[in-house]
Amino acid sequence: MGDRLTRITTRSGDKGESGLADGTRHAKTAPHFHALGDIDELNSAIGIVVASLTMDHALHDELLEIQSRLFDLGGAIALPRSDYSLEPETQHLDRLIAEYTQRLGPLANFILPGGSSAGAQMHLARAICRRAERSIWELYEAAPDDYHASLGMFLNRLSDALFVFARLLNERTPERLWQQKET
Questions:
Q1: Checking phi first, is residue 105 left (phi over 0); if not, alpha (psi -120 to 50) or beta?
Q2: Residue 51 belongs to a domain
Q3: Are the CB atoms for 38 and 128 separated by under 8 Å?
Q4: Whole domain around residue 96: which residue ranges?
Q5: 22-26, 73-77, 179-183: which range is least confident on average?
């Protein structure tokens, strides 16, 4: 791969518009850019977790792979009608969720986001993922012919996986359970 980003500052967005990879220009407030921004924020939040893990941690390489798929997802949004699918990746997340959930055991109650630093960061990534998912579905509803539904399904499953990953990162930290207010 050659130099792809030869100029970071282009000034082409200085009037409130930005371009997609297909050459079309849209207002920076368009659903495309909300989704792209949410995915970028999610990827950054996952990057913070990765930075806190040792390279031999069970989740390290898995999270790096997820970060790359999030870049692919952004590329699919930037190139409407590409028919890019994340179905195999969604199935992979299903397998990971099942594997780690079996290891962790069932939950008897809701848990409060927190625990270890990495676990708390993962809970934050999960919440950002939920927002990114809503952005993707909003974009899909506006232009169902432009995007594959698996993009939203992937983020739905990823938020579940991030919850399980947070529990895994907190395996040695007692999970704090939600305490319902007594009436």
A1: left
A2: yes
A3: yes
A4: 29-169
A5: 22-26
For tokens 């625990």, name the residue. 115
Reply yes or no on whether the pLDDT at 22 is more than 90.
Answer: no
- In-domain check, residue 183: no
Between the CA of residue 74 and those of 10, 132, 162, what are the distances in Å?
20, 11, 19
The residue behind tokens 């919440």 is: 127
Distance CA(183)–CA(180), nearest Å, equals: 9
Query: Does residue 28 have a pLDDT over 70?
Result: no
Is 177 domain-assigned? no
Supply the CATH number for residue 142's domain: 1.20.1200.10
The reply to whether 165 falls in a domain is: yes
- The chain-wide mean pLDDT, for the chain, equals 88
Buried b (16+ CB within 10 A) or exposed e, 22-44: eeeeeeeebbbbbbbebbeebbe
Token output for 36 = 């792209």
Query: Which residues have CB under 8 Å from 119's CB, separation 6+?
Result: 166, 167, 169, 170, 173
pLDDT band (50, 70, 90) for residue 10: low
Mean pLDDT of 125-141: 96
Q: What is the number of structural domains in the chain?
A: 1
Alpha-carbon dihedral sign for residues 172, 166, 110, 94 = negative
Percent of the chain with pLDDT over 70: 86
